[in-house]
Amino acid sequence: SQQGEEDPQALSIQEGENATMNCSYKTSINNLQWYRQNSGRGLVHLILIRSNEREKHSGRLRVTLDTSKKSSSLLITASRAADTASYFCATALDSSYKLIFGSGTRLLVRP
Amino acid sequence: DVKVTQSSRYLVKRTGEKVFLECVQDMDHENMFWYRQDPGLGLRLIYFSYDVKMKEKGDIPEGYSVSREKKERFSLILESASTNQTSMYLCASSRPRGRRNYGYTFGSGTRLTVV
Fold this sequence. Notes:
Chain A has 111 residues and is mainly beta. Chain A has strands at residues 5-7, 10-14, 19-24, 29-37, 43-50, 55-58, 61-66, 71-76, 85-93, 99-101, 105-110. Chain A contains no helices and eleven strands. Chain B has no helices and twelve strands. The mean pLDDT of chain B is 92.
């Protein structure tokens, strides 16, 4: 069963705009991670936020985590055409090495 | 540049064939994983291994087996390929919990078609 569910499923924006993707999950977690996947390729790790953190930044990426609502958001600021990809959240449960992935958000950044 | 290498990008096999998907990582990672990715279903965990010769079932192990004889190599085996195993297969590795970063490093994927 899917632990993380991304919202929206698809997002189309203009270059330069900000893109926000949301992820909800069901059970308590140790950490939550975001990945990017370019078409037909493997996933690339973007950022990890631990359950005791509320916000984290990496370059143009900002991730927030609200454990009371069991949700996270990924914000990409000043988007570029090269940001076009699918974005997945993944949760690490308390006592497992495993990551459970959501079904992803497809982001299209129009030039 | 550290990486996870999957032996084939594209593979076409016949129903009933025994299929081996190979994955090698050069990061000395303890944990290795096999996922399959299907449209609308996201990534689903097939098997994982947290040490040499150790393996654990994921969410969808039926029809698959794995082998981890060496730390750097994790093989996925389809004992008798079926058309419903047509999918993108992704291998990943990570350091165990307790280390600084346990994000996954993924391979580029193998797109398997069973005809």
